[in-house]
């Protein structure tokens, strides 16, 4: 199967990046930032597991900030069940349901929901990430994982079939059981404590992304070769 490819020149490590969270907060690589990003925040992409990891994570990493990108809709799976309003929407989306589950055990001032952001801002977020979490059911691998790899992120991901196409445990990232929020927290905490390990994993992740998913160097030539073969 031919992948569409990613722009690894655009999505590359940037030690001088500055990310504006809001009007009063700006983050750099010197900050401890745990990132999580999906088109929508929903169970198919492990949002509930990530949120359940936060009480322990925030307790053991008192300087960490959590930055979450994603909308409150549904891309995959079903919306929450429950009474619907006159527009057909449930009173609470998945985002609020799982935030409510942990809100009494976390410092909400350290959790920043950005919604959906412009692409350049998303790239900057990956570039300032200390540890990036990526979770998914056995389903289609999202571009965001490959982009995080290209940005040189240290990644903790779910040990599910699509993720294993790109992440080899201990080489290009760390893998945990999809449903194990405690293991997710443990591995993120371990990487926060080990900058050398983060750098090794991030460099290997980028090298893998460039070698296998770069648009200009890998994917586009293969696509053009395939098109040419159809004419033979």
Description:
Strand 3, helix 1 and strand 4 form a beta-alpha-beta unit. Helix content is 38%, strand content 16%. By secondary structure, it is an alpha/beta fold. The protein is globular and about 55 Å long.
**H-E order:** EEEHEHEHEHEEHHH
The neighbouring-strand order within the major sheet is: 5-4-3-6-7-8
Helices, by number, come to: 7
Q: Sheet bearing the most strands, described?
A: 6 strands, parallel
Mean pLDDT: 90
Our Rg estimate from Cα atoms comes to 18 Å
Strand content: 15-25%
Uncertain runs with pLDDT below 50, 5 residues or more? Answer: none
Please state the structural category.
Answer: alpha/beta
Number of strands: 8
Q: How helical, in percent, are the residues?
A: 25-40%
Coarse shape: globular
Distance between the termini: 20 Å
Q: Which helices and strands appear, and what pairs or packs with what?
A:
Blueprint: E1 19-22, E2 25-27, E3 33-40, H1 47-60, E4 65-71, H2 94-102, E5 111-115, H3 119-128, E6 131-134, H4 143-150, E7 155-158, E8 174-176, H5 181-192, H6 195-213, H7 215-231
Parallel strand pairs: 3-4, 3-6, 4-5, 6-7, 7-8
Antiparallel strand pairs: 1-2
């Amino acid at each position: 199967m031919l992948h569409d490819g990613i722009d690894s020149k655009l999505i590359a490590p940037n030690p001088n990046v500055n990310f504006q969270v809001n009007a009063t907060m700006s983050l750099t690589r010197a900050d401890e930032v745990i990132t999580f990003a999906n088109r929508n925040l929903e169970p198919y992409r492990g949002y509930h597991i990530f949120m359940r990891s936060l009480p322990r994570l925030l307790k053991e990493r008192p300087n960490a900030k959590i930055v979450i990108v994603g909308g409150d809709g549904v891309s995959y799976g079903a919306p929450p069940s429950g009474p619907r309003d006159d527009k057909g929407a449930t009173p609470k989306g998945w985002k609020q349901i799982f935030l409510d589950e942990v809100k009494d055990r976390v410092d909400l001032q350290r959790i920043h929901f950005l919604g959906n952001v412009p692409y350049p801002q998303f790239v900057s977020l990956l570039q300032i990430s200390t540890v990036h979490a990526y979770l998914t059911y056995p389903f289609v691998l999202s571009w965001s994982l490959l982009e995080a790899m290209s940005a040189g992120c240290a990644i903790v991901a779910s040990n599910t079939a699509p993720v294993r196409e790109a992440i080899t445990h201990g080489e290009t990232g760390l893998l945990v059981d999809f449903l194990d929020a405690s293991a997710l927290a443990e591995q993120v905490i371990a990487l926060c404590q080990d900058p050398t390990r983060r750098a090794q994993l991030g460099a290997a992740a980028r090298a893998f992304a460039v070698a296998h998913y770069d648009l200009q160097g890998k994917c586009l030539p293969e696509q053009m070769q395939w098109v040419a073969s159809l004419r033979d």
